[in-house]
Amino acid sequence: MSFLQPAGPVIDLGVNIDHIATVRNARGTAYPDPIRAALLAEQAGADLITLHLREDRRHIKDADVIALRPQLATRMNLEAAVTAEMIDFACQVKPQDVCLVPERREEVTTEGGLDVIRYYKEVESAVRQLKGEGIRVSLFIDAAEDQIEAAHAVGATVIELHTGRYAEAEGEEAVREIERIKAGVHAGASRGLRVNAGHGLHYTNVQPIAAIADIHELNIGHAIVAHALFAGWENAVREMKAIMVAARLGVSYGAGA
């Protein structure tokens, strides 16, 4: 048994297929097909498929979510804003997981964590509605103890820590960001929360995050789609999963992007 195929769960990779849909939508074609990408990613070792149905539908469409849900062999992690439209849609589709995220129309990508404290009542209501449909709820938040405590208080059972600041940092600042994320992981785990992480992670910065023992799952999309242009989609998925598992196990593995 090699570290590439461990006997049990080590760390999960959620492959985000949003930017497959971005390429498709750029020319208004039916290809590349994000559903095919999702199924191939599963075959290549993805533990779940993540997709963000944005309010402006700039990449993933409603039909993508509906068509993909029954075809997945793993699980669907649907990212959605805290709006009545999105929560009702999620309750209709019933993915295994819903990750509530902040969303602004003018942003290129999600710019920070959800402010659970500021929007406490709205988030609490969304969590209650989703849990009532048997959906596990995650909150995409910054690694701040007050936000983690609020996430726990509203009834979420999972948090996904925003790693964007770490991904943009260099040198000593990156070291400080790792320590901040570690503290957030500890704060979440000590409250009984499942702790995931993601945003801005790629083939040469993912290792320190993947090595944090209490992180269960990393969600990565743009880097895998970009690397797939040169390495092929399934190879890009396999390589990311191998790098993550190696980092968790303390095994050296070459990076490729």
From TrEMBL:
Pathway: Cofactor biosynthesis; pyridoxine 5'-phosphate biosynthesis; pyridoxine 5'-phosphate from D-erythrose 4-phosphate: step 5/5. The record marks 160 as: Transition state stabilizer. GO terms for molecular function: pyridoxine 5'-phosphate synthase activity. It comes from the Bacteria. The keyword Cytoplasm applies. Its main location: cytoplasm. InterPro entries: Aldolase_TIM, PyrdxlP_synth_PdxJ, Pyridoxine-5'_phos_synth. Keywords: Cytoplasm, Pyridoxine biosynthesis, Transferase. It is found in: Cytoplasm. Its EC number is 2.6.99.2. The keyword DNA-binding does not apply. 3-amino-2-oxopropyl phosphate binds at residues 16, 27, 200, 221-222. It holds the Pfam family PdxJ. Signal peptide: none annotated. It catalyses: 3-amino-2-oxopropyl phosphate + 1-deoxy-D-xylulose 5-phosphate = pyridoxine 5'-phosphate + phosphate + 2 H2O + H(+). The active site is at 52 (proton acceptor), 79 (proton acceptor), 199 (proton donor). 1-deoxy-D-xylulose 5-phosphate binds at residues 18-19, 54, 59, 109. Catalyzes the complicated ring closure reaction between the two acyclic compounds 1-deoxy-D-xylulose-5-phosphate (DXP) and 3-amino-2-oxopropyl phosphate (1-amino-acetone-3-phosphate or AAP) to form pyridoxine 5'-phosphate (PNP) and inorganic phosphate. Belongs to the PNP synthase family. Homooctamer; tetramer of dimers. This is Pyridoxine 5'-phosphate synthase. It comes from Massilia consociata.
